[in-house]
Specification:
The complex is a heterodimer of chains A (298) and B (135). Chain A has helices at residues 43-51, 72-77, 93-103, 109-119, 132-145, 162-179, 190-194, 214-220, 272-288, and strands spanning 5-14, 17-27, 32-36, 58-63, 78-81, 150-153, 182-187, 199-204, 207-213, 221-227, 239-245, 249-255, 266-269. Chain A folds into two domains: 5-204, P-loop containing nucleotide triphosphate hydrolases (Rossmann fold); 216-288, no CATH class. Chain A is an alpha/beta fold and 298 residues long. Chain A has a six-stranded mixed sheet with strand order 5-6-7-3-8-9, sandwiched between helices. In chain A, strands 11-12-10-13 form a four-stranded antiparallel sheet. The two termini of chain A are 32 Å apart. Chain B is mainly alpha-helical. Chain B has helices spanning 19-32, 45-52, 56-68, 94-110, 115-134, and strands spanning 72-75, 79-82. Chain B is globular, with a radius of gyration of 18 Å. The chains are: A alpha/beta (298), B mainly alpha (135). Chain A binds chain B through residues 32, 166, 169-174, 176-178, 191, 194-198, 218, 269, 271, and chain B through 11, 13, 16, 18-19, 45-46, 49-58.
Chain lengths: 298, 135
């Protein structure tokens, strides 16, 4: 099957600043992909490259087997919800549906209207007078009514209160289970993504730190707790992502495809949040060039 | 016979147990305790994901595992149904056993054990006894 997104050596610079560097990814279809990283990591840049709002400075990217935004057909296959969409505060709900219908040949007006009704929105209401949660739901409605094969959502829930956040993700998962659409969504909060994603990309300082199926990533990462010990004494197939040492004890988060056999370690599973934070911490430490007592592995 | 949904799933995000396993455990427990019996329908994948805001594959994975264990069966286009009643005769013994446990718990509290110590003691004993049972 065609990859939903394929990037090879993809990079984007704004003047001298690298917003995305050497990004190589293959995302299989049918996934809900979480793109996580701190603010300014390059998440928006990657998503805008995927929908064709930006052109790469280097490398290549294909989405659903074609160049992003290469023609009207390709535009119709990808639904995009930008950060803080919808943009036009003076547009009414009805205006948005009309706009969607005009711009998309496959527009499903029945779906759009039934969702608006289920949300309890008034067609005459202006986008500027909607609550944050309602605005996000309107943007999602417009994006799914074009019947896309891929939904790209840039920080869709970050500005929402916990209830609106939950309601948005409930609606999104409903769409995924019914229409088997692929989704890529970004967030700087792991908790938003932990339940909904089955594929994870951690992006820090313009670089992909780790990417893969959540189940595979969780199976390949372990927390090791044991008597204090130098990281370089570990077998070569155990990559240390995070290390914490006291005088007597070492606590390591390692990536290892093979089982950990050393009886000196207590081996514990890691959560998605542990994993993301470990990679973020490692990238931040590498950036600071910190080397006092803590070996930074690349 | 379809008696509609009789189980409502919940997720404990702090438990550290994978979400799909939490769903599996909840169904197993409900069957074991007699809350679910043969013919009862599990919620549809769509129902579960729109309630819990979780990935549909999580639910599918849980249902597949339950199916593999022969506890539920999928009927194409209809839904997933409980295939087995585990409790049967043994469920009648639950009441008296629960009373025994309550008495034991009261005794443990009187002896000054807090909840964590009680839990630890139960698990430790359970493990060592079931270990002997196997050997």
């Amino acid at each position: 099957m065609t990859a939903v997104l394929e990037a090879a050596g993809l990079g984007k610079r704004f003047g001298r600043r690298a917003a995305l560097s050497d990004c190589t990814l293959t995302i299989p279809p049918g996934k809900v992909v979480g793109l996580v990283g701190p603010n300014g990591a390059g998440k928006t840049t990657l998503l805008q490259l995927a929908v064709g709002l930006l052109a790469p400075t280097s490398g290549t990217i294909t989405v659903l087997g074609a160049r992003p935004a290469v023609n009207a057909a390709q535009l119709g296959r990808v639904g995009f919800v930008a950060q803080d969409a919808p943009t036009y505060a003076r547009f009414t709900v009805a205006d948005y549906l009309r706009l969607g219908a005009h711009m998309n040949p496959a527009w499903d007006n029945e779906l759009a209207l039934s969702r608006i009704e289920a949300l309890g929105l008034d067609l005459g209401q202006r986008a500027g007078s909607l609550s944050g949660g309602e605005r996000a739901q309107l943007a999602l409605t417009v994006a799914i009514a074009k019947r896309p094969e891929l939904l790209v959502l840039d920080e869709p829930v970050s500005s929402l209160d916990p209830l609106a956040r939950r309601e948005f993700l409930q609606a999104l998962m409903g769409v995924v289970s019914r229409d088997s659409v692929s989704v890529v969504l970004s967030s700087h909060l792991v908790a938003d993504l932990e339940r909904v994603c089955d594929y994870l990309i951690v992006l820090v300082s313009s670089r992909v730190q780790v990417a893969g199926e959540v189940d595979d990533l969780l199976a390949a990462h372990h927390r090791l707790i044991g008597p204090r010990r130098a990281e370089r004494s570990l077998p070569a197939n155990q990559l240390v992502i995070e290390a914490d040492h006291t005088d007597k004890q070492s606590t390591l988060l390692v990536r290892a495809e093979d089982p950990i056999l050393d009886p000196a370690w207590t081996v514990e599973p890691v959560s998605v949040e542990d994993l993301v934070l470990a990679y973020m911490g490692r990238a931040a430490a590498a950036k600071r060039g910190r080397r006092n007592g803590l070996e930074v592995q690349r | 016979m379809n008696r509609g949904n009789v189980i409502q799933f919940y997720l404990d995000s702090r438990s550290g147990v994978a979400p799909y396993l939490q769903l599996v455990h909840q169904v197993r427990r409900a069957i074991r305790l007699g809350f679910l019996s043969a013919g009862d329908q599990l919620p549809t994948v769509h129902d579960v994901v729109t309630r819990l805001a979780i990935n549909p594959n999580t639910v599918l994975k849980a249902y597949k595992e339950l199916e593999r264990d022969g506890l539920v069966g999928a009927r194409q286009g209809v839904g997933t149904f409980v295939a087995k009643t585990l409790s049967d005769a043994s469920v009648a013994a639950h009441g008296p056993l629960r009373e025994d446990l309550k008495r034991w718990l009261a005794k443990a509290r009187q002896a000054g054990l807090d909840e964590e110590s009680i839990e630890a003691l139960i698990w430790d004993t359970f493990r060592s006894v079931s270990g002997q049972g196997v050997a």
